[in-house]
Amino acid sequence: MIRLPLSQFALPTARGLEHSRELIARALCDNTVRARECAGADVDLHLHVAPLGPAISLGAMHWSHGVEVSTGNTGDMYTFVMLLDGVGRMTVSGGEMEHVPEKNAVVIAPQRPARAMSDGPTTALFVRVDRVLAESHLAALTGIDRFDGLDFDPDMPLVGEAASVWRFVQQVAAEIDRDMSILRNPLVRERVSDAIMTGFLYAQSHNFSHRLQREPRAAEPRYVRRVEEYLEAHCAQPITARDLAAVAGVSVSALYAGFKRHRGCAPLKFLEEIRLRRVRDALLLGVPGTTVKETGLRWGFHRPSGLSRAYGRRFGETPSETLRRAAKRQ
Predict the structure, then answer these.
(1) pTM for the complete prediction?
(2) Helix, strand, coil shares, percent, the chain, to 5
(3) Per CATH, which fold does 7-209 belong to?
(4) pLDDT, position 164
(5) CB 229: neighbour CB atoms within 10 A?
(6) What pLDDT was estimated at residue 2?
(7) Domain boundaries defined on the chain
(8) What CATH number labels 215-329?
(9) Are 21 and 32 a contacting pair, CB within 8 Å?
């Protein structure tokens, strides 16, 4: 029996090409599958998917024979794929590349077709990230408010920081599979998913990479990091600029100057970004009974109209539209 990472999150094994196509469509995206060998009826697909949060998941898959898989619209998800066993070829964004274990990973952009081919059994580990989650991380790191589109290079050589982030992903996959893993705690998973997304943003080249080349983190005043941690932990509570100055131990003007220089925005704007991300995460879960008003109140938005305007500017859709889209996935 195939031993894949994330075995506790295994979906039913698919037997044959049509069952494999249906399983991928149900768990990931629309696709077509054909055999690369004379073994179409004998093709097995083992697919495991573990949620790390409402907008990011970790997965593993194994094909028993060589196949060609073509995907249509992949939705609003980035997919980072690394082969563990076997050798394949990927066609992404119109370019074909080899896909080799320990040599390179591949990045598939949202709403872009892709094709994967192999001539024998293959095993892959992958991370799927919602476009909005990726952009909100980039906004927090750079201070950019709006994006024309975040485009990663599709070929990800496994050297330096890229190799490091994939080693971390493998460690997470191994740990989350344990019965008593701390990763079963949703708060821990949230921090881990943040680390993975931030790692990909720094490790893989994209059209905003130059905005991440700033002063080393160690050069920033300690109070900036202290206030940032306070905001993350207390973002649902009423917070004023004076409150934050007291936490920082500096004047309000010094606090604003420090945040503007090292975070690219004022501290209360930073707080709004955190709250908007928390609202977004809650709505993307699509839990029955969730309402926009109650979710907004929980995360510090006391006026629905104010939430709607800020949310629309940040994510390009209303909170209600996010909730309806999430409900359709259930």
Answers:
(1) 0.68
(2) 45, 20, 30
(3) Jelly Rolls (2.60.120)
(4) 93
(5) 11
(6) 61
(7) 7-209, 215-329
(8) 1.10.10.60
(9) yes
